[in-house]
Design goal:
With 381 residues, the chain is an alpha/beta fold. It has three domains: 3-85, Outer Surface Protein A, domain 3 (Alpha-Beta Complex), CATH 3.90.930; 88-125, no CATH class; 130-362, NAD(P)-binding Rossmann-like Domain (Rossmann fold), CATH 3.40.50. Helix content is 36%, strand content 15%. The protein has 14 helices and 13 strands. It has helices at 36-42, 51-60, 67-77, 88-96, 100-103, 105-114, 120-129, 140-151, 184-195, 228-231, 235-244, 272-282, 286-295, 306-324, and strands at residues 3-5, 11-13, 19-21, 29-32, 81-83, 132-136, 156-160, 219-222, 248-254, 257-264, 334-339, 346-349, 377-380. Strands 7-6-8-9-10-11-12 form a seven-stranded mixed beta sheet. Strands 2-3-4-13 form a four-stranded mixed beta sheet, with no helix packed on it. Strands 1-5 form a two-stranded antiparallel sheet. The radius of gyration is 24 Å and the shape is elongated.
């Protein structure tokens, strides 16, 4: 073990006895009381020394036997301790890709703040490499989500869309201007490949591969160019995902409103059918209007503000990554909306409907996201 106090957390002495790690309340920890000698030992936890050399340093400082181990245990309990060797096997594959690990160092630092156990950040980053995510839609929102997921280390990001790239699909970080006129799916595949750490080529399904030979989907992100499909998702395309238990997240821009969620956990949270039935119960005219919107002639150029699309893509990608890392983000069973010009994000809980065949309403308790802890933890030294 090569102990290291997590460098991503900013360090500051509150007074002569207490030191605070982390500026933002969600992950800040106060350590103390800390005497001058213990403070000197803390400064040596930089990941360059193993336990043997650290014990020698502790004795040289005059600390009694066992003080080092007790301090390490307390730091680990507070989520402040990392181990530069714990994630070594997990990051070996990244090291083999030219520049990949350097591209992901900021993500690795962020993960070290979120996950308390030593080596947890590297293990989760490595786990992303084995995941397969499908993004349905390659417009301003969908292409941005696909690029962000690939850049964050998701090993396989597939994008499904038809027709050709239009000039209004072009966005910074999304489809480039030179892709106008090309097939959206092909242009999106190249975008995913360029965005990936190390510039690895996107992996596509092999022609003629047998069913079951491809890895299962970890997540489907539904980001249609027509934002109506995210705001009022159609239950029919989601039937297969519900039947196979495939988690799926909706995201898009409708008119001047951005939408992220719900993240559907089949059988556990409200699905597209639940959302439609619940809205129809509240508004008897809703089914009639929805049928007209879905079947009527749509504008060739959907309204999609560039800044709002970027915000939706970023938030959706962050929620998707949190889920892939093993958490239940705030979009689980809920929809987040923001509308121009005020852009105030608000959430609405999506309730499972008793009349929906998905079965989520049959559970005694729904699945809910848990918010981040707030305030500061104090660890006595």
């Amino acid at each position: 073990m090569h102990p290291m106090v997590k460098p991503a957390l900013r360090r500051a002495w509150r007074n002569l006895q207490y030191v605070q790690f982390g500026a933002a309340p969600a992950h800040a920890v106060v350590v103390g009381p800390v005497d001058t000698t213990t403070g000197s030992l803390l400064a040596l936890f930089d990941g360059t020394r193993g336990l043997g050399p650290l014990r020698e340093e502790a004795r040289a400082l005059g600390l009694p036997d066992g003080r080092l181990e007790a301090l390490l245990d307390r730091l680990a309990e507070a989520g402040l301790l990392d181990d530069t060797t714990a994630g070594a096997p997990a990051t070996d594959a990244l090291r083999k890709e030219d520049g990949a690990l350097d591209r992901l160092r900021a993500d690795l630092a962020s993960l070290s703040v979120v996950y308390r156990e030593p080596g947890g950040a590297a293990l989760r980053l490595a786990a992303r490499r084995g995941m397969r995510v499908q993004v349905r839609g390659a417009g301003r929102v969908g292409a941005g989500i696909a690029a962000l997921l690939s850049a964050a280390g998701v090993g396989r990001v597939e994008v499904l869309d038809g027709e050709r790239v239009e000039p209004w699909d072009v966005t910074p970080g999304g489809l480039p201007a030179e892709a106008v006129g090309e097939r959206r799916a092909a242009a999106a595949r190249r975008l995913v490949g360029r965005s990936a750490p190390g510039g690895r080529a996107p992996r596509a399904a092999r022609p003629g591969s047998r069913a079951g030979s491809e890895p299962g989907l970890s997540l489907v992100v539904v980001a249609p160019r027509d934002g109506l499909g995210a705001y009022a998702p159609d239950p029919v395309p989601a039937d297969d995902w519900v039947a196979t238990g495939t988690p799926h997240l909706y995201a898009g821009v409708l008119e001047a409103t951005g939408v992220v969620g719900p993240l559907v956990l089949p059988g556990g949270t409200a699905c597209a059918g639940c959302v439609e039935l619940e809205r129809s119960d509240r508004d008897p005219a809703w089914p009639r209007m929805l049928a007209q919107w879905r079947s009527g002639r749509q504008s060739r150029v959907p309204a999609c503000d560039l800044g709002l699309a970027a915000a939706v893509a970023g938030l959706a990608a962050a929620h998707a990554l949190a889920f892939l890392d093993g958490e239940l983000p705030a979009s689980t069973g809920a929809r987040w909306e923001a509308s121009l010009p005020l852009l105030e994000w608000r959430s609405e809980r999506m309730t499972p409907h008793a009349g929906c065949p998905c079965g989520a309403a049959g559970r005694t308790r729904g699945v809910h996201a848990s918010g981040p802890a707030s305030g500061q933890d104090t660890m006595a030294g």
